[in-house]
């Protein structure tokens, strides 16, 4: 690979990329969880939640690509296996199929967890003076804060 000279030291690029790997893992795990709930939600709120979950997982599908591409831009390989995501993610997997109300609660907690990951990675990107990563992380944080608010408003 050619030398990367984008005004960020190699150590700083690696530190930011490591944080972005955690954000990628959180986002991908949340994507899977949301898609699972979209498929399996039942009950009187089925139609609304089915559509709402689809909006969320569609947005997350785009996000994971953007995060992974930023990691690659920084010269680091992006994780791409379930095993890697499970090791890196703060979003906890759900093995059972909860009822609709519990799905909403679980997704709320998961979005809040991603916000916390964003906040920790944001600090690393600030120290590296990495404006591109800062913009990406800040945008993701805002999206997850809004998603958590919307989910909380459903109960």
TrEMBL record:
Lineage: superkingdom: Bacteria
SUPFAM superfamilies: Ferritin-like
Domain Ferritin/DPS: 18-154
Database matches in InterPro entries: DPS_DNA-bd, DPS_DNA-bd_CS, Ferritin-like, Ferritin-like_SF, Ferritin_DPS_dom
PANTHER family noted in UniProt: DNA PROTECTION DURING STARVATION PROTEIN (PTHR42932:SF3), GENERAL STRESS PROTEIN 20U (PTHR42932)
Family note: Belongs to the Dps family.
Protein name: Dps family protein
């Amino acid at each position: 690979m050619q030398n990367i000279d984008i005004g960020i030291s190699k150590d700083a690029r690696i530190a930011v990329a490591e944080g972005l790997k955690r954000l990628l893992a959180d986002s991908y795990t949340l994507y899977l969880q949301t898609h699972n709930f979209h498929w399996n939600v039942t009950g009187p709120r089925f139609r609304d939640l089915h559509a709402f979950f689809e909006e969320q997982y569609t947005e997350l599908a785009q996000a994971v690509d953007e995060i992974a591409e930023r990691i690659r831009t920084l010269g680091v390989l992006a994780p791409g296996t379930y095993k890697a995501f499970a090791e890196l993610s703060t979003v906890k997997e759900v093995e059972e199929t909860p009822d609709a109300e519990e799905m909403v609660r679980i997704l709320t907690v998961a979005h809040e967890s991603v916000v916390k990951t964003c906040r920790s990675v944001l600090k690393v990107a600030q120290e590296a003076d990495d404006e591109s990563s800062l913009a990406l992380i800040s945008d993701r944080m805002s999206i997850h804060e809004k998603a958590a608010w919307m989910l909380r408003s459903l109960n």
